[in-house]
Amino acid sequence: MKRTMMILTALVMSSVMWAQNVFTVVYATSDDGFVNVRKRPSTSAPVISKVWMFSHGLGNGVLRGQSGNWSKVSVGNATGWAYTKYLGTLNWYKNDGRPRLVANKTQTPIFVESMEDGSKHPLFTTVPKGTIIADDFTEDGGYYMLMTAHDNLFIRKSDAIIVGR
Predict the structure, then answer these.
(1) In the 3-class helix/strand/coil scheme, how is 65-118 assigned residue by residue?
(2) What would the pLDDT profile of 140-163 be if each residue is shown by its tens digit?
(3) What three-state secondary structure class fits 43?
(4) CB proximity list for 31: less than 8 A, separation 6 or greater
């Protein structure tokens, strides 16, 4: 009975999180520095991309769902399956009642901080309209800036709205 209640509670909590469009970054925790993203949830399925180690506060993928021991993830333009045991996650939405940054356009682009080679704001990922992106953000010119442990993510102001002010 106790185990059933714990499982039910976990399912309800996860469904509430997904209903709120939590934007969850994924990163590898494996010893070799990456996790393969496969076409299907099977070790024999073709590798279509990789999720890299936690780097400068970010992963390089977005969690889309889970099934058994596998997680559905998007990395760039590829969406596939990675073994959950070797993934870490970081949620961008804490729901603590403060203003929230919400995607305002279909497939809102989110950019990463400028790189050392001088390139500006490489595309990190896109999120669907209505996705709650973050509670913690500041304004930076024509962008809203989300802070991670070491890097920043940028969303064009025209692509997002703030709710709860």
Answers:
(1) EEECCEEEEEECCEEEEEEHHHEEEEECCCCCCCCEEEECCCCEEEEECCCCCC
(2) 888 998 877 667 788 899 999 888
(3) coil
(4) none
